[in-house]
Amino acid sequence: MAPDPQAASAPPRRTLADLLPELKAIIVQMARDQDSALQHRINSTASTRELVSLGMSDWDGKSARALSLVDRAWNLAAAPVLFETITSTRCQDSLFGFRISAKYPFCVKKVIFLDVSKAADWRSLLRALPSFANLEHVTFTEEAVFTLFNPGGEPDEDQATFREALRTLAPRIPNLNLMFIDVAATSWMLPQFTTLRWLKWCPMESSVDASYRTLGQAFAQCRRLEHLSLIYPSNLLSSMLMKDAVEPSSWPGVRSLVITLNPQIGADTWRLIQSFGATLEKLLVYLSDASLLDHLGEEREASTFAFPNLRRLTIKSGSAAPVDTTPLLKIFSASPIGHLILPISGNGHDLSPTSLPSTDFLETVLRLFPTHLRSLQLDYHPLLNMQHFHSLAPALVSLASARNISLTLLPSYDIFLHRKQRNGDPGTRQEQTIRRCDGVDEVLRHTLAQSGRMRATGDLEGAEQLVEALTPLRGRMLRDED
Questions:
Q1: Structural domain count of the chain
Q2: Residue 448 covered by a domain
Q3: How far apart are alpha carbons 165 and 170 in whole angstroms?
Q4: Separation between Cα atoms, residue 89 and residue 439, nearest integer Å
Q5: Which of 151, 344, 364, 478 could cysteine-pair with 185, CB 3.0–4.6 Å?
Q6: 401 vs 343, 352, 366, 404, CA distance in Å?
């Protein structure tokens, strides 16, 4: 029998193993990003975590680690991604020494010294750092720094060795993250990182004035610093930084600044932001309190200060109470900002279920930034009324389009949260509560209808049975009234 010509011409079936190494690397990176996004939502609020947990089975076998187990070729493609970030957890184990340090040192780009680890873990990880030729980022936490280096005291033999190792490694590390490190330790560490370009610092206050006096000098030595992130800097810290800078020209040319403010923006913190005014291109401000802008509104010079190179401004609110960001926008309205990311809550916009659609805040933004604005992102979290959001969107888009401005509205589609509900899916706790309350309402309506029928027909026996059935509920009602 002659072979079927159509079957003979059919292309061979491709599998994951047949993909080119470059495609495998791209797929693994996408899986890694998916894993990170999923973990971020799991670590979020309880309601978000509950919603994500309903669809956890959807991601079984789709992680970067699962891809690494397909075969040897996929393992080779996944290794650079899986070992890109190393934490100090269990670094004293033989698996770390014989597998990661020896076999995959070229993959490691980011190292994190966690507070929850043991001293032996920190020592093992620090000893392995010289083998990580492509290391770009190091995160230190408070306890790890003082255990390994003892910056404020006399080091023992091991600490002296670790200090020397840090002095050798620091010049080739461009990205440093210092979490809950005090002023004295930061002043001791910064000068050793001579090629530092990214710095994220969550400071702990110091009671020693001398520590603050050396901090400004330490910052001034970071001549290559371009990206600075300060988490909860106090007005005292800001004041001492400004006081100890020898000349404004001695400050690094910071192009990107992220600042998390709590509980209020004071005059010194505002002047610290202004000190980067000549070079600043991106600014992200986290507002964590509803009264955060009180002092800033009192600054007379604030309303006229312009950042000549500022192109992107992001304001995010971490406060449960609404935060009005309009005063902050007025201050930056003199800058040539082309891209804005703003929260809606607290900006004269009522997000309650009974509120009516409003474009007031968008109109205010367009009035404050009439020339340079090219893109705008409005974040409607927390979203209480989806119908309100959908009815408002066309009006917002129309206003922005008339000014040739690209408008993005959040929340957008989220594959982890906006999943299609399946048969048998119990839903979130809130969804279950709503369904049960709807059922209670239906039973009560039926009971009222039965009571009316019994009254009309004089059905005494039926009424007594109904009273007997409702006696527990009546007792609870009387207790609540008392």
A1: 2
A2: no
A3: 8
A4: 49
A5: 151
A6: 20, 27, 11, 5
The two structure tokens encoding residue 423: 């048969």
Element (H, E) at 474: helix 460-481
Q: Does residue 153 contact residue 191 with C-beta atoms inside 8 Å?
A: no
Q: Considering 418, 435, 459, which residue would you say is the last residue of a domain? A: 418
- The number of angstroms, rounded, from the C-alpha of 228 to the middle of its chain's C-alpha atoms is 16
Rounded Cα distance between 189 and 201, Å, is: 12
User: How many other CB atoms are found less than 10 A from the CB of residue 432?
Assistant: 11
The per-residue pLDDT for 246 is 45
pLDDT of residue 424: 54
DSSP3 helix / strand / coil % (the chain, rounded to 5): 50, 15, 35
- Domain end point (choices 82, 112, 129): 82
Owning domain of residue 286 = 267-418
Burial-class residue 121 by CB neighbours within 10 Å (0-12, 13-18, 19+): buried
User: Helices marked H in 70-208 — which ranges?
Assistant: 72-82, 94-95, 101-103, 119-128, 142-148, 157-169, 183-189
- Estimate to the nearest angstrom the gap between the alpha carbon of 260 and the chain centroid: 12
What is the model's pLDDT at position 300? 44
Mean pLDDT in consecutive groups of 10 residues from the start of the chain, 482 residues: 58 73 89 88 78 77 85 87 88 70 85 88 90 93 92 89 93 94 89 94 67 75 90 67 54 85 65 84 80 52 75 82 78 92 67 61 91 90 66 87 90 72 59 72 80 81 78 71 64
- DSSP track, 65-83: HHHHTS-HHHHHHHHHHHT
Please state whether the predicted TM-score (pTM) of the whole model is above 0.90. no
Give SS3 for 141: strand
Structure tokens at 203: 């400071």
CA 436 – CA 307 distance, rounded (Å):
55
332 contacts 312 by C-beta, under 8 angstroms: no
Question: What pLDDT is recorded for position 325?
Answer: 81
Is there a domain that residue 198 lies in?
no
339 in Cβ contact with 313 (< 8 Å): yes
From CA 187, how far away is CA 240, in angstroms rounded? 13
Residue owning tokens 């043991």? 118
Query: Which tokens in the block code for residue 453?
Result: 């029928």
